[in-house]
Amino acid sequence: MADGTDKPIEDVKVGDRVLATDPETGESGPQPVVGTLASAGAKTLVRISVAGGVLVATDNHPLWVAERGERVRADELRAGMLLRTPAGAPAARGLCAARKRCRPPRRAGASSPLSS
């Protein structure tokens, strides 16, 4: 969340403020959630190891890679790619790890004007 707290994605709702990155400038800041996504069926999840923990995302979820100046699908991340922390600062370099299939929550995502 934009205030630094964590919330399960299924609990994020329209109007909540999240940290988002402008894909053209790479600048991050708080933005309101303007919509949610519904999804059904099994999904492939990707575990991405970073300093301080593990990020789990669907395989096609776009993540901002700082040195490339663009979003990269979670399943296309490679060791050494520089990601950002929830606060927008550069994180330790991500390491793509094991993948597995599972059912996502009913509301599997949220978007903001500058969706990260």
Automatic annotation (TrEMBL):
Family annotation (InterPro entries): Hint_dom_N, Hint_dom_sf
Gene3D superfamilies per the UniProt record, alphabetical: Hedgehog/Intein (Hint) domain
Cross-referenced Pfam families: PT-HINT
Residue ranges of domain Hint in the record: 1-87
Biased composition (Basic and acidic residues): 1-16
Disordered as annotated region, ranges: 1-33
The protein's name in its UniProt record: Hint domain-containing protein
Organism expressing this protein natively: Nonomuraea jabiensis
Upper taxonomic lineage: Bacteria, Bacillati, Actinomycetota, Actinomycetes, Streptosporangiales
